[in-house]
Amino acid sequence: MSESVTAVHVVTIDGPSGSGKGTIAALLARELGWAFLDSGALYRLTALAALNQGVDFADTAALAVVATTLDVQFLPAEDGLVILLAGERVGDSLRTEEVGAMASRVAALPAVRAALLQRQRDFARHPGLVADGRDMGTVVFPDATVKVFLTASAEERAKRRFEQLHSKGINASFDRLLADIQARDERDSQRTVAPLRPADDAIILDSTQMTIQEVFAAVMVQMRLKGLA
Ligand code: C5P
What we know:
The chain has helices spanning 21-32, 39-52, 60-68, 97-106, 110-121, 136-140, 154-167, 174-190, 212-225, and strands at 9-14, 35-38, 72-77, 80-85, 88-89, 128-133, 146-151, 203-206.
């Protein structure tokens, strides 16, 4: 018999972009030896596939078809994951601000969210799953064992992004990054379907003044309280 989602422990880490949730979720999955879902990647891949297929972003029905038929593989690799979209390796383009902004547009469409729902739930497997996104604790895994909502001020998140780009030798404007982050926050929080908000039973962590190690330690405290670590 196949296992239901609730038979597997799920830890959800939701929050706005740049809050550090992706880093924490990946660290936690590695520490526990659990599966990992980067749900934002699915929205980014939908946007990228629509671009590749020349789909008009105003055509809601066509975007829903792209999400339903998304041909994607996540393959484990030495330094993380290799993502194949329609058999082709996806590079750094997936992580650009432009694709993030387009992802947040397609993510506001109910038909796209519905198309990706089961695909996300299918990531749950024994012994557990760490899922990172915006609505993991509220919509996709409402019965998750531990729910974390990780946030930080928009200025701090723009600063982190600026430093990350700088370390890769990429010049960026801090003001532009801050404006992009604020626009994406606004779109993600104000949309009618699955808006960015903490689940009622989520632990809220503000990482503005915290290091990654401190956030990780705080999450591990919650895991221990539930007997999961
Ligand atoms: O987390 P990431 O920045 O990769 O997500 C890209 C976009 O995908 C977000 O701005 C958001 O609009 C959307 N998203 C979402 N629900 C999720 C994960 C991401 O709406 N669970």
